[in-house]
Amino acid sequence: MSLLGFFILAFIQTRYSVPVTFQNLFFRFDPLIFIVVSIAYRTVLSASLLSISIIAATLVFGRFFCGFVCPLGTTIDVFGIFSRKEVGRKTKLKHLKYMILIFLVVGAILGVSFLHFLEPLVIFERSLTLFLHPVVAYVSGLFGLGSARVYTESMIAVLVFALILGLDFISQRFWCRNLCPLGGLLASISKLAPFKIIFGEGCTQCGICEKICPMDAISVDSTLVDTGECIDCLRCINECPQKVFTYKLGRASSPLDLNRRQLIGAIGTSIIVAPLARTLLHRRLLGTLIRPPGSIPEPDFLNTCIHCGKCMKVCPTNGLQPCILESGVNGLWTPRLISRIGGCEKNCNLCGQVCPTSAIRNLTPEEKTFAKIGTAVIDRARCIAWEQDRVCLICDEACPYNAISSLNETIRGTTLLRPFVDERICTGCGLCEARCPIEGRAAIEVFSIGEERKRRGSYITEEKIRLRALEEKEEDIPAGFIIDN
Amino acid sequence: MDGITRREFIKIGAGAAIFSLLPKSLIATENNAGPMIGVAEGDNSKLVRAAVDLVGGIDRFVKSGDTVCIKPNLSFASNIDCAATTNPAIVRQMVQLCLDANASRVIVMDHTIHDATLCVERSRIEEAIIDKKVSLVTLQQERQYAETEVPGGVELTTIGVAKAIQNADVLINMPVAKSHSATGVSFGLKGLMGLIWDRGYLHRVNLDRAIAELATVIKPDLTVVDATKALTTGGPGGPGKTVILNKVVAGIDPVAVDSYAVRIAQWYKKSWSGNQVKHIRAAAELGLGEIDTAKMRIKEVRV
Predict the structure, then answer these.
(1) How far apart are the first and last CA of chain A?
(2) Domains of chain A, first to last
(3) Is the pLDDT assigned to residue A145 strictly greater than 80?
C-alpha cells in the first residue's frame, strides 16, 4: 500500500521544476523490462541493472514483488473491495502468463518488443499519465487550480486499465494469476525460492485458506502451497484457525504449469506476429512524426521505449503526445512531439532525464539544443505574411534559436517582411508551429527532415556552434518602422 | 493618525483651489505644458524611485489602501541576460514603492507567450514578490478576461481584457525596452498586448493600428520603462544584441514615454524617432498622447 503511494508520488513528482532523482526507479527495478529490452535492443540495459536485486530477492523469498511492490497488484486488491463476489473461484488459465512471458521473450529475440501492451508497471504508469492526470487536471481546473492536460489518445489506455480491473469480477487478482508476464517471470523464479509458506500438520480441511487466498495458490486436498503462485501476502497464516501455515525454509515444490503444446503455441504466435509488427513504414509515410530530442535511431527506439508515458507526463508544454497508429500498431503510445499542441522548450531536457530505458538519451540541456529533431517548413500558401500581406512574424518572435529571419520580399508590388527558415540553425523544436496564429493547421510545420538520431556520441559540432554564434544575422528593418519620414 | 492636520489640509486645499483658478498659461513652467518624462540613470538599485519622483512621486499615483496592478513583460522563457523580459530588480523597486505608499495589494501579472511556469522561472520575477501583500498572477486562462468594447475601433470592436486591471485602482505598465521583429520596438503600448486574451487576433489585422486602438481601452496610470539593458536586435524573444543603458524612463502619457524611449538607443542599428514607429504614431493620431519629444518636459537625474 505504501509502495503504491510511493509510485504515485513518483508519478506526481515527474514534472517540471522537480529534479529527476527517484521518479523512474520503479521501472529500473523491473526485471521484465530489463530482460525483454536487453534482448530486443541487443545491449545490456545498464539503467535497469538494479532489477537484478529483485530477481535475487525473489530467488530467496519468493514472489513478494506481486504482493508488496507492484502498484497494479495493490490497485487490483483495493478494487477487490467492490468486485469480490466469488473469492477463490478456480480458473484453469495460470499457464497463460507463462505463455505471454515466452511470447514476449521470443518476440524480443526476433527483434520486436511487445512489452508495452502487457507490462504491469507500464500499464499502470500509462494509465496515470493518459487518464488520471488529465481528469485531475480538469477537475482542479474547474476550481481555477493548475493547468489543463490533454492527450490525443486516452481512451484505449483507460479501456486496458478498466479491463484489467474488470477481470477481478471473474476471480480475485485474475490479471496477476493468469496473465501478468512479470508475474510469470517472478513465479518461475520463485519456484526455486527456499523461503516459502509451508502447509504444516493439523489441517482440518475447513477450506478457509483456499477461499481467502487471492492467488488460488493453496490446495487443501493435497495440502500444498504452490510457491510459484504464492505472493507472500500471509493472509493464510493469519486466518487459519489451526495455524498450520508457517513461512520458513523448505524444499522446492510444484512444477511449472506449462506443457509442451502451450510452449510451442507461445513461440509460434510470436514467430507469426513479430515479423508483422516489425515494420518501419511510418518512417516513409509520415513526415511529421517527430520523436523527442535525443531519441535513439527509430528501430532501436521502438525496441527500447516501453511506452510508459513518463516523458509525456513531464513535458512542460504538453507537446509530447502518444502515437495512436502513426508509427504502426506496435507503436501505440510511443511519444511524438505534436508541436501544434506545444513545442519543445529550449532549456528543458526532462524527457531524457525521466526515460527509464534511455530510449530518449539523457542529454545535458545544452547538448539537447543541438539535437536536431526536424526542420520547420513554411507553407507560403497558408502563411498570412506571405499570402495576405499581414505584419505577423509571430514565428520569428517565437523562435528561441533565431532560425527564422524576417526579410523584405516583394510580391505583386507589395514589399513586406516575410519569414524565412534557416534550416541549418532550425532544431525542429516547433515553438513556431505552436504559436502560428492561423486557425487549424499551422502555416509553419516541423517535418522530420534532417533529424539526427544517435545511439551514442555528441550532437554538438563546431559547424553548429559557428552557425549559431553568427553575429551578423540577416535581419531586415521591421515593418513597424516608417523608413522615409 | 500620522496624516495631515486640519490646518494643513485647509492651507493645501485653499492653495490648490487658487492654483486651479489660475489661467493655464500661468501654471505652465518654462516653455510648454507638455507631458512630463522622468529619466533616471546610474545606480540600478535606485532608478525606479528616482524616475517616479521626477514625475510627481509615487504618492501621486498610489493612495493608501489601493490595489495596484504592475504589468512587467514576462512573455518569454528567455534567460534574463537576454533582456527580453523586465528586470526583476526593477520590478521589485516598484513593488517596494507601492508598499511604501501603503498599497493594500500589489499584483504583478502578465499573459505570457511561452509556458507560464518557464517564463516565471527564467524571468526570475519571483524576486519581486517580497511581501504577503504582493502576488504574482499569470493570465493564461480565458476566464481571467472580460470582453470589452473598443469604442470607435476599426481593427478591434471588442477585445478580452484582463479583469484584474478593471478591479484595480492603479495600473502601472513596466515594459522592458526592446526591439520587435514586427512592430519595430516594443515598450509600453506594445506591452498592453500582455493584458488581453487573444493576442494572435491583432496579428491577423493591422497590428500597428490595433495596438493603438487597444491603448484607447487600457490606460495605465503610469508607464515605467526598464531600460537598464535594451535588446536592440533579435526582439522580442531574443537572443540578440543588447546594450547597457542603466536607465529607467517614467511618465504618465503612454505615447510620450514610448516616443521618448525610441530615442534612447539604436534599434536594428539605426536611429529612429517616435514618429517613425507606426503603432506609436497611430496612438498619437488617436489623440492618446504627445509624440513630439520637443513638446515634452523631460527631466533627467543621475543617481
Answers:
(1) 74
(2) 2-191+258-275 (no CATH), 320-469 (3.30.70.20)
(3) no
CA A155/CA A152 separation, integer angstroms: 9
Quick one: angle between helices B207-217 and B278-285, nearest 10? 50
pTM score, whole prediction: 0.74
Average pLDDT, stretch A274-284? 78
- Going by the DSSP 8-state scheme, the letter that residue A50 receives in this structure is T
The set of residues, in sequence order, having a beta carbon less than 8 Å from that of A4 and lying 6+ positions away, is: A71, A74, A75
Q: How close, in Å, is residue A324 to chain B by CA atoms?
A: 26
* Residues of A in Cβ contact (< 8 Å) with B184: 477-481
Chain B contacts of A429, Cβ < 8 Å?
none
- Asked if B278's CB is within 8 angstroms of A394's CB, the reply is no
Of the candidates A157, A148, A158, which has an alpha carbon nearest to the alpha carbon of residue A342? A148
Helical H segments across A278-410, by residue range: 282-285, 298-304, 310-314, 350-354, 365-368, 384-387, 394-398
Q: A461 in helix, strand or coil?
A: coil
Using DSSP's 3-state secondary structure scheme, residue A420 falls into strand
Query: What number does CATH give the domain B30-302?
Result: 3.40.50.11440
When pLDDT is averaged across residues A417-425 and rounded to a whole number, the result is 91
- For residue B162, CA distances in Å to A11, A102, B40, B194, B195 come to 34, 60, 30, 9, 5
Residues shown for chain B: 303
The closest of A282, A366, A400 to A332, measured between CA atoms, is: A282
Mutate to test the interface with A, among B186, B203, B232 (most CBs of A within 10 A): B203
Q: Are A402 and A366 in contact (CB under 8 A)?
A: no
| Cell numbers representing residue A275 in the block | 515479423
pLDDT of residue A125: 92
User: Which segments within A269-329 are labelled E, that is strand?
Assistant: 320-322
The C-alpha cell that represents A185 in the structure block: 517471470
Mean pLDDT across A138-153 = 82
Q: Cis omega before residue A181 (within 30°)? A: no
SS3 content of chain B, % helix, strand, coil (to 5): 40, 25, 35
Other CB atoms within a 10 A radius of the CB of residue B266 amount to: 15
Domain range summary for chain B, segments of one domain joined by +:
30-302
Q: How many helices (H) and strands (E) does chain A have?
A: 25, 10
Q: What is the DSSP letter of A19?
A: -
Instruction: Return the DSSP state at A258.
Output: -
Rounded Cα distance, B251 and B145, in Å:
27
Q: Dihedral of the CA atoms A8, A11, A17, A20 (nearest 10)?
A: 110
Distance CA A364, CA B275 (A): 47
Check residue A86 and give its pLDDT.
54
Question: If chain B, 303 residues long, is cut into consecutive pieces of 10 residues, what is the mean pLDDT of each piece?
Answer: 66 66 49 81 91 91 93 89 91 94 93 86 89 90 89 89 91 94 91 91 87 93 94 85 92 94 91 91 92 90 90
Using CB atoms, which residue from A342, A391, A475 is nearest to B268?
A: A475
pLDDT-based confidence at residue A485 (cuts at 50, 70, 90) = very low
Higher pLDDT, B29 or A374: A374
